[in-house]
Amino acid sequence: MVAGVRIRPEDGSLIQIDPTWECLxxxxxxxxxxxxxxxxxxxxxxxGGCNEPILAVRSNGSFVGILSKTQSGATFTWxxxxxxxxxxxxxxxxDTTDVAQMAFNTTKGMRFRNSSNGRVLFDSRYKYxxxxxxxxxxxxxxxxxxxxxxxxxYAVAISNSGFYTTVVGGSTTPGFWFIQRAGYVAGIRTNTNxxxxxxxxxxxxxxxxxxxxxxxxxxxxxxxxxxxxxxxxNY
Length: 235
What we know:
By secondary structure, the protein is mainly β. The chain contains no helices and 19 strands. It starts with a strand and ends with a strand.
């Protein structure tokens, strides 16, 4: 960074404002109940007036993953899936300052703009996204706990769906084939012991049998989880 500002609070942390990088501020927050949908829970979050929204979630009693994210103009809809039907998920949405919600209604403060286009990069009257840690890992076949620096007051922004399908084949009858299909999405569970759990949420399962050439077997898709752990204290 050759221009901008760096602020070091008394706790030793660093606040850096880059003249070409727009900080994302909190736009809205809430909770969504994910009603029963088969063996999982499904819920949707729809928010209008968005530019580049980021969704962060907290779910202490259930794994939660993002099944889909769709856009219609400036309106975005996220479909969540939970491993426990009926689970409640807390959420926060961050977006660019011009469409975010002002947190402190005052005429005093500090504001930075991009000199080339005039867009607001940072305004001290807003609450901005604070990233504590990145998670990038294979969800695997069982849940894994990832150490984080907080036991409470945090949320996780999931960057991808991590959707994949397994197809396992075999048969005990000569001339016949038998396969099992299972679909999953990678998810997280927020804990209170200084860890985030990463694991798979099974969406569906089916079997098929027949004669002749069997369908292909193996793994299809990607079960990798990309996420950011966010500091939500006082948010």
